[in-house]
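Predict structure. Chain length: 96.
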Amino acid sequence: ELAVLWMAGSAQAAPVTHTVTIERMAFTPAEVVVHPGDRVVWVNRDPFPHTATAAGRFDSGPVAPGKSWTWRAGAAGDYDYVCTLHTTMKGRVSVR
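Prediction complete.
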């Protein structure tokens, strides 16, 4: 029983999936805070394609209407991203 308690106390938190909705020409939420190993899923609810692109970090390529794209967080840092098709659309992923 003590071994089970010790193992449970030392286990790291399981990765979490965070969802960013792309709708009405915006990323919602505009900023997500995640941990290394977590996943961020961008879901496009607009009637046209969008990207989630952080130069040198990640690039979804065009995400078609009704589709999604997933990225797994790695190194800690703040990653500002943009839709390269609509550059007024901006967001941030902060990995802590």
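Summary: The chain has a mean pLDDT of 91.
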